Amino acid sequence: MIDSNKSFSIAVCLAVPDQHDKSMRLSQKLSIPLVSHDTDEYEFLLLYSADGLTLKHTGENGFEPIMVSFTSPTMTYRIKYGGGRSQALARAVGLKKGWQPTVIDATAGLGRDGFILACLGCHVHMLERSPILAALLEDALQRASGSEQLSEIIEKSMRFSETDSIDFLQKLQQEDYPDVIYLDPMYPERIKSSLVKKEMRILRGLAGNDKDAEELLTIALVRARNRVVVKRPRLAQTLGSRAPSHQITGKTSRFDVYLI
């Protein structure tokens, strides 16, 4: 069920008639209205198109529709030219020849980093507690599983659960502890909201500000076998009071690595 405390209104829109059953099931799962046509009565609309499930903002403010896709040109380019195991993300989780770590991506969001890690050889379990983001992710994984190039990666190297990560990690049995826990909590609010990417502003509205991120880090540090990696803005303070073992810094973001 969608959190009623969120400051936005949302509905499922039946944009394509032959998607009626899927749209109805999504409406019932999320406990939100199903509308038969595009309308500005709601701030956001979830709709199935020929390409996949899309989140559309109905206002005239320049927000582009959001659809999770692991086969998009952007993701294809990142896989091909992103630097492989030499890129910052791979170095942060400790990827090296002969080691294919198990990774829990505890704040999956749009699933991009988790998918990249799976493509690089990790066994990734993505967790996401926002029902809307979870719906977008599940739809993307289902579409990618039908891709000749990606089906094996999706089947053998990726799992997804719609769940609260703190609750999930607290209940995790010791034999199931992952090698790495990866955290990418929502970035802190900036004073000038115009500096925040429009996509991030939408995601913050959907998922909240991750005010329990420090609590999540605390439990992650006793559930990971090898390390915890936290993605942060390049100039942001570290999450919590514990100093990371080391940091890998890029142009706009950095990875704080906590070795166990």
In brief, what are we looking at here?
The chain is α/β, with parallel strands linked by helices and 260 residues long. The protein has helices at residues 20-30, 73-81, 88-93, 112-119, 131-145, 151-157, 165-171, 198-207, 213-220; strands at 10-13, 34-35, 44-48, 53-57, 102-105, 123-128, 158-162, 180-183, 227-233, 246-249, 253-259. The chain folds into two domains: 10-57; 73-259, Vaccinia Virus protein VP39 (Rossmann fold).
Structural overview:
With 260 residues, the protein is an alpha/beta fold. It has two domains: 10-57; 73-259, Vaccinia Virus protein VP39 (Rossmann fold, 3-Layer(aba) Sandwich), CATH 3.40.50.150. The protein is built from nine helices and eleven strands. Strand 5 (102-105), helix 4 (112-119) and strand 6 form a beta-alpha-beta unit. The longest helix has 15 residues, at 131-145. The chain is globular, with a radius of gyration of 18 Å. The two termini are 36 Å apart.
